[in-house]
């Protein structure tokens, strides 16, 4: 039942939150933490209660042992010629404790065992008085009867305590499931949510391009780690007459233009190269290649791709580009300045064109 209930809860939580989780991983954290807390609390309560009851069960088993031990000791003492009354008194006292403990021992069972102990006491008195083979046989017979009733009582105690052991087992299972959900919540928080936060911090949501600081960091890494014989190309890109689009059609349309241009440029970027938005309508691409013409070739493809865009009720969109190859010992910021200078030269030459190395 516990397993079925747990599976139902997991299915409900995941079905309800999976769609949100795809877009927002943190949406799964609260249900996970809540489930972990509930399972751990329930499991700890069940296990704690079962352990407490288990302690009582051990005391009950010890009482049964005292009863049987008292019966056995009384017979041995009597056959050895010693006083056995204290051993029988101990057995009767242990039986009373069992009855008072409500350990599943009913009054009939207790009465039968108490009667057997009383009969054994009488048989002992007869043996003390006559001490012949007949009274000895009677003494042993009554001790066997009392011992068998003690065994039956032990079985009653075992049956009574078995559900408590099962309760302890399921309590531990619930507690372990709680720990498992807590660990899963930590994993979600540490990796999935952290990765999502990192993505949101690194990329511009409108265009899918790296944010300015992340692009500049990647550009520096590319320059520092470039292999011998390889080049780092840098292309600066700026939309032509973008202010006029915002003024004439509104900023919402301007955002759609930026998104469309960003998508067109991003589709041309190879794996291992970097595409960033430096601000407003200005983009940049850093390319790693053993071909010194790679930056210029990319710029040609990018110019053509954007010019071929057709956006409803808008004029043809064009871009101007500046292309450079990063020189030996040149810093990324200096390469950007050179590419930016070429970009403005392209605009001054009439826009929708490329200037560069």
Element-by-element helix/strand order: HHHHHHEHHEEHEHE
Q: Mean of residue pLDDT?
A: 81
Count of helices? 10
Globular, elongated, flat, extended or rod-shaped: what is the shape? rod-shaped
What value does the Rg take, in angstroms? 44 Å
Q: What fraction strand? A: 5-15%
Terminal CA distance reads: 74 Å
Major sheet: order of its strands?
2-3-1-4-5
Q: Spans of 5+ residues with little confidence (pLDDT < 50)?
A: 14-19
Strand and helix map with partners:
Blueprint: H1 2-23, H2 29-79, H3 85-100, H4 107-130, H5 133-202, H6 212-225, E1 231-239, H7 242-249, H8 251-266, E2 274-279, E3 282-289, H9 294-307, E4 319-325, H10 332-348, E5 354-356
How would you characterize this protein structure?
With 357 residues, the protein is an alpha+beta fold. It is built from ten helices and five strands, in the order H-H-H-H-H-H-E-H-H-E-E-H-E-H-E. A five-stranded mixed sheet has the order 2-3-1-4-5, with helices on both faces. Helix 4 (107-130) packs antiparallel against helix 5 (133-202). The longest helix is centred in the middle third of the chain and has 70 residues, at 133-202. The chain is rod-shaped and about 135 Å long. Mean pLDDT is 81; it is low at 14-19.
């Amino acid at each position: 039942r516990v397993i079925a209930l747990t599976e139902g809860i997991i299915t409900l939580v995941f079905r309800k939150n999976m769609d949100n989780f795809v877009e927002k991983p943190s949406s799964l954290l609260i249900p996970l933490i809540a489930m972990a807390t509930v399972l751990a609390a329930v499991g700890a309560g069940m296990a704690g209660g079962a352990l407490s009851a288990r302690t009582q069960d051990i005391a009950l088993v010890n009482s049964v042992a005292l009863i049987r031990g008292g019966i056995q000791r009384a017979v041995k003492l009597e056959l050895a010629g010693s006083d056995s009354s204290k051993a029988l008194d101990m057995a009767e006292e242990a039986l009373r404790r069992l009855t008072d403990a409500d350990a599943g021992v009913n009054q009939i069972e207790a009465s039968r065992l108490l009667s057997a102990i009383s009969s054994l006491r009488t048989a002992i008195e007869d043996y003390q008085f006559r001490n012949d083979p007949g009274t000895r046989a009677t003494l042993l017979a009554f001790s066997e009867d009392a011992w068998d009733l003690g065994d039956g009582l032990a079985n009653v105690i075992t049956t009574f305590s078995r559900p408590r052991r099962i309760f302890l087992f399921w309590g531990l299972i619930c507690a372990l499931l709680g720990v498992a959900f807590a660990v899963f919540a930590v994993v979600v928080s540490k990796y999935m949510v952290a990765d999502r936060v990192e993505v949101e911090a690194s990329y511009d949501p409108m265009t899918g391009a790296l944010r300015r600081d992340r692009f500049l960091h990647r550009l520096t890494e590319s320059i520092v780690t470039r292999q011998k014989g390889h080049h780092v190309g840098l292309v600066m890109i700026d939309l032509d007459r973008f202010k006029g689009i915002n003024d004439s059609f509104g900023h919402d349309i301007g955002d759609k233009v930026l998104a469309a241009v960003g998508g067109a440029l991003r589709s041309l970027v190879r794996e291992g190269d970097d595409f960033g938005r430096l601000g407003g309508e200005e983009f940049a691409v850093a390319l790693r290649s053993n071909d010194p013409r790679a930056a210029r070739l990319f710029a040609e493809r990018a110019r053509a791709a954007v010019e071929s865009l057709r956006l409803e009720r808008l004029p043809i969109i064009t871009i101007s580009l500046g292309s450079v190859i990063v020189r030996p010992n040149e810093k990324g910021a200096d390469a950007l300045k050179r590419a930016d200078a070429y970009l403005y030269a392209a605009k001054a030459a009439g826009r929708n064109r490329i200037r560069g190395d």
